[in-house]
Each structure stands twice: as structure tokens, then as C-alpha cells.
Specification:
376 residues; 13% strand; alpha/beta; single chain; TIM Barrel
Length: 376
């Protein structure tokens, strides 16, 4: 009997509680404000492009020229560090690193939602004097090499999405690995100190060291001339196959594409196609199109030259869009922004107009043809 009463009490308590629960004020229905309409920016490169659009940039210009900065803010979705993290700047003496320039660019990218591409860790050129004069056994060279790569990559971990790990390792003519200087009479060492001191496999070790320092970074091999040198293209592809077989962590290939209005379209298309067939990410990494490759001082930037240049920019972008599978499209980067910023003016001192913007950052005809061609 007692047990029955207990059950009855429990039963009624449950009924009352569930009644109370049912009467509870319902939770207010969350009112989601309507999302703002998705606006496709149809006027800028980054707004219309099917992939990232980049520019290599100069720290000083970024710090001092508001027009330069605004052009980057409006047009670019990716930034490459043109010079600020190359050896002479970032590693000015054996025991010191100077990240100030690279950090300025990295902060700009973080604050403005731009992808940061680091350039370049190992190159046969642009090495500081102290490095060229360095003496030591192979272990000392290996330590120097590894310390440089890992210090720089670790510093930008979480900021740089990707790196050009090794730049221009193969000779122009026959596409063989740069080791010795093959033309000693021209006062320019086209061999490579790294291959001389560390052996041919230095490239693979550079990738391994970079990966160790930042396992999330995408690692690229960057090179020029694939559009005119089948031998170089073949060497790059052999290297990629060897890396794949040995599980060396390479993610992508940079085709620099410093080209001109007379370059063979066939050569450009073939290079893009062959490199895309590796299945790696493909970055047109240093695009500029010279209209005056022979540096004729009497030349003016005629309507005809502008049209040829606009067509070439459009051709390259169209080939990239159609020949590189979407998942491999890392983007197209021009080598700086306005004509006056180009290495063709400032480094080899040619009279030329190779970029998408003029000296005052006004859009040129090639800007419009390129923008149409990169459209999604
Ligand atoms: O544009 C760069 C120029 O300002 C530098 O003085 C020069 C030497 O460091 O390098 C130029 O950039 C090169 C790039 O790093 C690798 N590919 C070829 C580019 C043009 O020379």
C-alpha cells in the first residue's frame, strides 16, 4: 500500500512538473538580421579574379607613397616581398638578422587581409659579401645554410603562407644545375656557392629545413625562362619527380615570366602546360612584359606597343586560367606595381613600361585587358 502511495505521489509530481515546463515562456526566436547582399567587386583585379592577384613590393615605397599603398589595398590579394628578406638585407652579418623591412610588409598584409609570399631563401645571386667570403668546412656551410633558412621561416611562421625556397638553380643554356661559373670572363658568377659547398642535393635539403621550421608553409621552387628553355623545364620536372619519389615537401612551382611583347605564345602555353602536369601549385610569380627588350633609347610607348602588351598580358592570364586546373592556381603576381617601380627601370636601367600601372599609378590598357582575362 505504502509503495503504491509513493508511486502515486511521484506520478503526480511528474505531471505537475511537466505541466510547469510546458507553461514556461518559450525561448525567444533568434531573429537573424538579413545578410548584406554579396557584392562582387567588378572593378578591381582582386575583385574579379578567379585566383589570387599579387604584386612584389618595395618597403620604402609602401612606407612613403600613399598612391602605391592604395593601389595595393584596392587591387591586390597577395603580396610578395621583393627584396626585404633576401640575404643581404635580412642577414647582414653572420650573427645578425634584420627583419624590420619584412616585418613592415608582413604587418601590412596581416592588417589588410593579404596573402604573404616570402621570397627567396636560397639563391645563387644577391648574396652578401660576408657570405661570399665565408670559409669553413662542409659542416660549417651546412649550419649556415640551415640556420638562415630556419631563422627566417620560423620568424614569419603564421604570417607567410608560402616561400620561394630555392630560386633559379639551373643554368640558362643546357638547363644543368648551376655549380661552377661557366662564363668566367664576364665578371658575373653564374655558378652557385651552395652547390659548390653543399653538393647537388642542397635543393632538397633546403625544402626539408624550411618544412621543419614551418610545416604549414607552402614551399615553392621558383625559376625564370621555362617559356624559352625546354632544357630548364625538363630539369625542373625531373627535380619534382625525384622529390615526389623521396617525399621531399615541395608544394609548388613559380614561373617568373619576365617576358616581352615578342615572346612566343607557343612557348608560354607549353611551359604552363608542362609544369601544371606535375600536379603542384603553379604561381606566375614575377610577371612583367617589356615593350623595349633591346633598350632602344629612341623608342616611345606608342599605341601599337600598348596594344601588343595588352594582348600579351591577356594571353598569359587566359592560358593560366585554362591550362592550370583550378585547385593548382596559386595566382599571378606582377613584379612590382607601377612602371617606375620595375627592376627593368631601377636595376637594369632600361627605358621601358612593363607593368599594369603607369608612373602615377593610373591604369594602363594592359590593366584592363588583364582584368578581363583573369575574370572568374
Ligand atoms: O627586382 C629585384 C631587384 O630590385 C633587386 O635589386 C635584384 C637583386 O636582388 O633582384 C630583383 O628581383 C629578382 C628576383 O629576386 C628573382 N628573379 C629575377 C628578379 C629580377 O632580377
Amino acid at each position: 500500500m505504502e509503495v503504491k502511495i509513493k508511486y502515486l505521489i511521484l506520478f503526480f509530481a511528474a505531471v505537475i512538473l511537466s505541466g510547469l515546463y510546458a507553461c514556461k515562456k518559450p525561448d525567444p526566436v533568434a531573429i537573424t538580421p538579413p545578410l548584406p547582399p554579396v557584392v562582387t567587386d567588378t572593378t578591381t583585379l582582386k575583385g574579379v579574379a578567379a585566383f589570387k592577384i599579387g604584386a612584389a613590393i618595395d618597403v620604402y615605397r609602401l612606407q612613403t607613397d600613399p598612391l602605391y599603398k592604395n593601389t595595393l589595398l584596392n587591387q591586390q590579394s597577395s603580396i610578395t616581398i621583393e627584396n626585404a628578406v633576401k640575404w643581404p638585407t635580412v642577414h647582414p652579418s653572420q650573427n645578425s638578422f634584420d627583419f624590420s623591412g619584412g616585418d613592415y610588409i608582413a604587418d601590412f598584409c596581416m592588417a589588410n587581409n593579404k596573402r604573404l609570399h616570402g621570397h627567396c631563401l636560397i639563391w645563387y645571386q644577391a648574396n652578401p659579401d660576408w657570405l661570399n667570403k665565408f670559409t669553413g668546412d662542409s659542416l660549417a656551410w651546412e649550419n649556415l645554410f640551415k640556420t638562415h633558412i630556419q631563422t627566417v621561416v620560423a620568424h614569419y611562421k603564421g604570417k607567410a603562407t608560402s616561400w620561394d625556397v630555392v630560386n633559379e638553380a639551373f643554368h640558362d643554356g643546357d638547363g644543368t644545375l648551376r655549380v661552377q661559373d661557366i662564363n668566367a670572363s664576364d665578371n658575373f658568377d653564374d655558378g652557385c656557392i651552395w652547390a659548390r659547398h653543399l653538393g647537388a642535393d642542397y635543393i632538397a635539403r633546403a625544402f626539408l629545413y624550411a618544412h621543419e621550421a614551418d610545416p604549414d608553409a607552402l614551399l615553392f621552387y621558383n625559376e625564370y625562362g621555362q617559356e624559352w628553355s625546354d632544357a630548364k623545364t625538363a630539369s625542373i620536372i625531373n627535380m619534382v619527380n625525384d622529390f615526389k619519389a623521396r617525399r621531399i615537401p615541395i608544394s609548388g612551382l613559380g614561373l617568373q615570366m619576365h617576358t616581352d611583347i615578342n615572346a612566343s605564345n607557343d612557348g608560354i602555353a607549353k611551359a604552363i602546360q608542362k609544369l601544371a602536369a606535375t600536379g603542384l601549385l603553379i604561381h606566375i610569380s614575377e610577371l612583367d612584359i617589356s615593350v623595349n627588350p633591346s633598350n632602344d633609347q629612341a623608342l616611345s610607348y606608342s599605341a601599337d606597343l600598348q596594344k601588343k602588351q595588352a594582348d600579351k598580358y591577356a594571353f598569359i592570364a587566359t592560358q593560366y586560367k585554362t591550362l592550370v586546373p583550378k585547385a593548382q592556381q596559386y595566382g599571378i603576381t606582377t613584379w612590382n606595381v607601377g612602371d617606375k617601380d620595375s627592376w627593368i627601370r631601377t636595376y637594369i636601367m632600361h627605358k621601358d613600361w612593363p607593368l599594369l600601372f603607369d608612373d602615377d599609378y593610373a591604369k594602363k590598357s594592359c590593366y584592363f585587358s588583364f582584368r578581363d582575362a583573369v575574370k572568374n
